[in-house]
Each structure stands twice: as C-alpha cells, then as structure tokens.
Automatic annotation (TrEMBL):
Protein family: Belongs to the TRAFAC class TrmE-Era-EngA-EngB-Septin-like GTPase superfamily. EngA (Der) GTPase family.
Oligomeric form and interacting partners: Associates with the 50S ribosomal subunit.
Protein's name according to its UniProt entry: GTPase Der
Residues binding GTP 1, per UniProt: 9-16, 56-60, 119-122
Physiological role: GTPase that plays an essential role in the late steps of ribosome biogenesis.
Gene designation per UniProt: der
Lineage, opening ranks: Bacteria, Pseudomonadati, Pseudomonadota, Betaproteobacteria, Neisseriales
Domain EngA-type G: 3-163
Organism this protein belongs to: Vogesella amnigena
Length: 163
C-alpha cells in the first residue's frame, strides 16, 4: 500500500515548497502570501522503490471560527485523519510561535507517526537549527531545507521506514 504523508504547519513555513520537491511538480501554489494554498493538493512521489502520496494542506488555522479559516482548519484536520504519517513543518528562522504550540498539542494526540521538520535550515548546523524545537515534545526534530533540498530525501526515507 502506498502511504499518504500529510504536510502540516502554520502558513508560510514552506509546506508547498516541500510538496513541490517531494512530487517534483508545480501543482502547489508557492507564495510569500500566507495562507494562499487553500485546498488540499495531492501528489505522487517515490524514493528508491518506495512510492508515496503527499498532501499539501492549506495552512493550519487552529482558531476555528467561521468562513475561510474554518474551512482551512476542517480540511487540514481531515487530511491529518486520512494520512498514514504526518510531517509537521516549523520555521527554523522564526523559531517556535504560539500557533506552532497549538498545532503540536493537537498532533500529540494523532494516532499516526508525526515527524517534526525544522525548515529553512540551510547554512545552519543541524544542532543549532533544531535545538529550541525539542520543547514541542514531538520527538527528535529534523532539520531540512525545502528550497535547497538539504535533508529532504533522508527525512522521507525515515518516514517511509515505518511502512
Ligand atoms: P506554505 O505557506 O507553508 O505553503 O509556505 P510556502 O511553501 O509557500 O513558502 C513560504 C515562503 O518560504 C516562500 O517565500 C518560500 O520561498 C520560503 N521557503 C520555503 N522553504 C524554504 C527554505 O527551505 N529556506 C528558505 N530560506 N525559504 C524557504
Ligand atoms: Mg502553501
């Protein structure tokens, strides 16, 4: 069976950039504008002989309210429920935000394995990039650069080892 990996995280952490790299497609909309990717996007990828499906979620807005924010949260929660593994992206340059903590709390209850990926870590040592993110209590953080590709293949191999 092809495992489905959901990319989750607050807007602007690099989910769509990672999606593009994992699927080598331009399907996902990458933009500086937070929250631009509103729908779930599915793409296929493969590492060695192992295929996988990736879902790019449209920003996790934990404050469930109404209108578009509610739709985004609903879609993301649905993607999380349907996934076999979750990659939770955070931004290594801005550090932990209150929104990251809310998402981490929700993901700690997930039944699937959750991988914490510290993005935008190009040019920084793994130890430096990940240090503060241990606090999120989601296991060993993994430093990557979605735009440069650093650590991405290794991370996916680690995720796929579970399947
Ligand atoms: P999303 O909202 O989580 O889907 O984030 P995007 O993929 O749209 O990326 C938001 C911004 O972060 C864009 O300007 C990207 O170019 C930038 N970005 C994404 N990945 C990296 C990375 O690994 N390093 C750096 N420096 N910038 C990145
Ligand atoms: Mg996006």
């Amino acid at each position: 069976m092809k495992p489905t990996i959901a990319l989750v995280g607050r807007p602007n952490v690099g989910k769509s950039t990672l999606f593009n790299r994992l699927t080598r497609s331009r399907d996902a909309l990458v933009a500086d504008q937070p929250g631009l990717t509103r729908d779930r996007h599915y793409g296929h990828g493969r590492v060695g002989s192992k295929p996988y499906l990736v879902v790019d979620t449209g920003g996790f807005e934990p404050v469930v309210d109404e209108g578009i924010l509610f739709e985004m949260a609903k879609q993301t929660l649905q993607a999380v429920d349907e996934a076999d593994a979750i990659v939770f992206l955070v931004d290594g340059r801005t550090g932990i935000t209150p929104q990251d903590k809310i998402i981490a709390n929700r993901l700690r209850q997930a039944k699937q394995p959750v991988f914490l990926a510290v993005n935008k870590a190009e040019g920084v040592s793994h130890a430096m990039a990940t240090a503060e993110f241990h606090e999120l209590a989601l296991g060993e953080p993994y430093a990557i650069s979605a735009s440069h590709g650093d650590g991405v293949r290794e991370m996916v191999e680690m995720v796929l080892e579970f399947f």
